[in-house]
C-alpha cells in the first residue's frame, strides 16, 4: 500500500486532534511512503498548530527527502509525536506483524494491545472479510483514539474487492457509538471536498436512477469535476466507549427489525444513522 499525500495530510490532522499519543499508531497494511518534499512545505504553510519541536522534525524530514535518504512511513509518523508505529500485513514488509486481517486478530493471535490511531489507508478494499477488518480496528483502538479510513469510493474499477459508500461509516458509527470527526471525498494527491457535519445526512441519500437533481448527486458531480474520476472517501471515527464491536444493520432496515417481535438483537438499540436520509425507505413501508 502507498502512503500518499492524502494519507499524510489526514494522519497529520488527526495527530493534532489527539490528546494522547503515547500508545502510538497501528496501520492496517504495510505502507510505502510516496510523496515529495513539497508536501512538507504544504503542511507547514497550513494553519495547523504544530509545536516548534514538530516543525523542526518535519523540516529535517524534508531535508531527508531532498537528499534521497528514503525516509519511511514510520519516520514520518513518529515525527508527528507518536511514541511508536507498526503495521499489520501478511507480507511482513517493514517489520509488520504477520497477521491475517481476514481473521479476528485478538482471537486468532491473542494480540490485545491498543493504539491512539488505527489507520486503514487503501488496505480494506483488499481484505475479503470486512467484519474481521472493522472489528480488528475497533479492538486495536484505545478509548478516545481514532480509526482513520481512506478507501476507494467512486470508480477504482477492479482495484480491490470492494468500494465503500458513506452509509457504511454512518451506520457503523451509529451501532458502535463512534463520533464522526471527519468525512470527505478526495483524490490521492490531497485534494479534498469536506462534508460539513450538518450535511452528513445528505451523503447517506440513496441516489435513484435518472435523478440528476438530488443534492448528493450534485455533490458527487462536483467532486468528479474538481478531484478527478477516481474518488476516495476519508472518514475519521473516534471511539468513545470500551464496548464490544457491534455489527451494524443498514439504517433503513432498523424499523423493520424493531417491529418484529420474534427477533431480538442489538440492532434494536442501534441509532438511526443513514435511516433518516432521502430514499432510505424501510421495506415494511414499501409493502403498505
Describe the structure using short key phrases.
288 residues; alpha/beta; Rossmann fold; 7-stranded mixed beta sheet; 18% strand; globular
SSE string: EHEEHHHEHEHEHEEHEHH
The mean pLDDT is 96
Radius of gyration: 20 Å
Specify the number of helices.
10
CATH fold category name: Rossmann fold
For the record, the CATH class is: Alpha Beta
Strand coverage percent: 15-25%
Give the domain tally.
1
Distance between the termini: 48 Å
- Uncertain segments: none
Briefly note the structural class of the backbone: alpha/beta
Q: Roughly what percent helix? A: 25-40%
CATH architecture level-2 label: 3-Layer(aba) Sandwich
Largest sheet strand order: 4-2-5-6-9-7-8
Short characterization:
This protein is α/β, with parallel strands linked by helices and about 290 residues long.
Molecular structure report:
This protein is of the alpha/beta class. It has a single domain, classed as Rossmann fold (3-Layer(aba) Sandwich), CATH 3.40.50. The chain is 32% helix and 18% strand. It has ten helices and nine strands. The chain has helices at residues 5-17, 37-45, 52-66, 73-79, 105-109, 130-140, 166-176, 215-227, 254-258, 283-286; strands at 2-3, 25-28, 32-33, 85-88, 115-121, 141-154, 179-186, 192-194, 231-238. It has a seven-stranded mixed beta sheet with strand order 4-2-5-6-9-7-8, sandwiched between helices. Strands 1-3 form a two-stranded parallel ribbon. Helix 6 links the parallel strand 5 (115-121) and strand 6 (141-154). Helix 2 packs antiparallel against helix 3. The longest helix has 15 residues, at 52-66.
Amino acid at each position: 500500500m502507498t502512503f500518499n499525500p492524502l494519507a499524510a495530510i489526514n494522519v497529520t490532522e488527526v495527530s493534532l486532534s489527539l490528546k494522547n499519543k503515547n500508545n502510538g499508531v497501528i496501520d492496517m497494511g504495510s505502507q510505502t511512503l510516496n510523496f515529495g518534499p513539497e508536501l512538507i512545505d504544504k503542511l507547514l504553510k497550513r494553519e495547523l498548530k504544530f509545536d516548534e519541536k514538530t516543525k523542526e522534525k518535519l523540516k529535517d524530514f524534508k531535508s531527508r527527502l531532498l537528499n534521497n535518504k528514503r525516509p519511511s512511513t514510520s519516520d514520518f509518523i513518529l515525527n508527528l509525536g507518536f511514541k511508536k508505529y507498526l503495521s499489520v500485513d501478511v507480507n511482513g514488509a517493514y517489520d509488520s506483524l504477520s497477521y491475517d486481517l481476514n481473521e479476528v486478530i485478538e482471537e486468532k493471535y491473542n494480540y490485545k494491545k491498543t493504539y491512539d490511531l488505527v489507520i486503514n489507508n487503501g488496505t480494506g478494499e483488499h481484505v475479503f472479510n470486512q467484519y474481521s477488518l472493522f472489528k480488528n480496528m475497533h479492538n486495536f483502538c484505545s478509548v478516545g483514539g481514532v480509526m482513520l479510513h481512506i478507501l476507494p469510493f467512486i470508480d477504482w474499477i477492479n482495484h480491490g474487492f470492494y468500494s465503500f459508500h458513506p452509509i457504511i461509516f454512518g451506520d457503523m458509527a451509529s451501532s458502535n457509538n463512534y463520533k464522526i470527526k471527519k468525512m470527505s471525498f478526495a483524490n490521492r494527491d490531497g485534494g479534498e471536498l469536506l462534508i460539513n457535519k450538518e450535511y452528513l445526512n445528505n451523503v447517506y441519500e440513496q441516489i435513484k436512477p435518472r435523478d440528476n437533481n438530488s443534492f448528493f448527486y450534485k455533490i458527487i458531480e462536483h467532486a468528479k469535476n474538481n478531484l478527478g474520476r477516481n474518488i476516495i472517501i476519508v472518514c475519521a471515527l473516534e471511539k468513545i466507549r470500551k464496548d464490544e464491536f457491534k455489527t451494524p444493520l443498514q439504517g433503513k432496515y432498523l424499523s423493520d427489525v424493531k417491529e418484529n417481535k420474534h427477533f431480538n438483537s442489538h440492532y434494536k438499540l442501534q441509532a438511526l444513522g443513514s435511516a433518516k436520509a432521502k430514499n432510505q425507505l424501510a421495506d415494511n413501508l414499501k409493502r403498505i
